[in-house]
Amino acid sequence: MQKLGDFKLPPFFNYPPYFTLQPVKETREKQVQLWKDLILDFCKNQKIFVISLEEDFSLFSNPAIERSLSHEAKVVFLSALVNDGRAEWMDKGHKKCLILWLRIQDWADHILRFVRDNGLEDGVTTVEDIRSGFETRGTELAGIDRGVLIRALKLLEQKGKAVIFKGSSADDEGVKFSA
Amino acid sequence: MRLCLALFLSKSQPTQLQSLQPLHSLPSPMASLFRLPAAQLTTSCRPIFLPGEVERCLLPGVDLDSDDSDRPTPLLPFQSSLLVLTSHRLVFIDEASASAREISLPSIIKIYPLKKSMSIRSMFASPRVRLQVAVSNDGTISEKGTRSTVIILVMRGKNMDPDVFYGRFMEVIRAREWELTASANQGNTGLEGSSSGARVNDLKITMPVVGVSGILRKEQESWESTDKSLQDAFQDLNALMSKAKEMVQLAEKMRQKLLATGSNSQSNSNDEETVSKQDMQDWLLIVGIASPVTKETAGALYHQQLSRQLADFVKVPLEKAGGMITLVDVYCLFNRARGTELISPEDLLQACALWEKFDVPVMLRKFDSGVKVIQNKSHSDDEVFARISSLAQKPDALRKGISPSDAAFTLGIAPALAKEHLLSAENRGLLCRDVSAEGLRFYINLFNEIDSTNIYS
After folding, report:
1. Interface test with A, best of B434, B446, B454 (most A CBs within 10 A)
2. Fewest C-beta atoms under 10 Å: which of A112, B151, B296, B317?
């Protein structure tokens, strides 16, 4: 089975029409669905949060069959993810796309679980700790995109489960969780 | 010879009795007492012509009545048929039932001249041509018959002038081309050159004349016939009436010429010309005939017959092209076959559009991309798709897909058409496309085979 890094690619990745945007409606719907799932799976596996259309993205081409997606195709598939709420355009020009292979809500749940598992209620941690601290290793949270993390924390703040405050250093914030 | 004498000597029956017929005793149609031999038609309801036979005139809406008893009775199967006058026969086509009957011209003994009586009834009645035809003992109208009967052609169609038809009818009878074909067939079977040479001497009508001498000869002939027409026309009133149509055309032509020269030249010698122009216009008014609109009225019939002829013609190329042929190709082939009387693209389109109204085995089809083709009605898209599917599942095609030229080669059709078929198959979801540096190729559609819940298996 073909691999991209250590990600196992599905068999249809070698099917040339997969890389050509299909004009026929039903075929296109099928194709879009497959690409959406593949993008999410790949990003989750590789912990990729941002896809930039101005750079090459390894998933979007298959050198073995000498095919790659056109710009139009990439926009179509990413827009489909945006419509599903699994991605967001980071700029008006649609050049960068934030991939939410876990929704913000899901991230928030993950954080809560992490807090519970590590007994961090009523304690204070930094955002950076949540991202790359010792405890997070091996969990989903390890290496989470900072922007996504902040948003998840803000969501928890709205629910009253956490409070964010400015930390001592300029670029780090602290979080206090409540039970 | 006998026929010509008969024409000069015959007199038409008085019409008084007929005009006084009360309504309730109108003749009842009877089953044909006389049989006409069946004529063969193509699948588009055009007559199948004998060798050397040429179509001369078409009249829609013709009834056939029998004048055998003391008053005319309609012959049932021959009501409102399309009459085709050819150099050899009269063919009555019933388009609704796609059947036809014929009267061969040699079986006509006598043609009565057209009645020109001025009674009110005959002014509004449909023009009629009475014929005496030979009938054999079993009741079939045939030239070998020993008995005879009188039948009437009733022209109910509004389009054609009866005098023109009558004129052509007489011409055709006089020409006796069926004898010519018969003799050409019997004698000189091996020497076709000499028989055609004999033909040129006897009759100049059928032989296509070529070369400058041919053109000169044609010019000469047309002058001669114009001259003769003028002479005949002014000899007596009856003849003039029957020639009126031709006179009008001549007058029109002369008027056009006068108008043309009048506008060109300056006002120096204009007095004479304007006088004659004025005279011409006056004369035309006196005769009381406006320019006939025959082109308009014949237009509908022309397109109908063209349409049928096209349907017949297109069969062979269709076969060769594998059941589907582009309209452009048909245009080229048809015009090439016609030789001199070319048709315009609009004529072709109109002719194809008319096919919907008739029952012909071909149809016009427009693809999404705008390409128009002619295909057999029996052509099945599904069958083509099945062939394409099996082609797309061959090992080579699974790896590399099929291009329009691959498909054209395998299916035996033109590449443009093959591409249309591939696109149609794509629209149906049978194939999907692959665009790359190598161009457009098609693969069998595997998207439907992929299980979205388990894409890694």
Report:
1. B434
2. B296
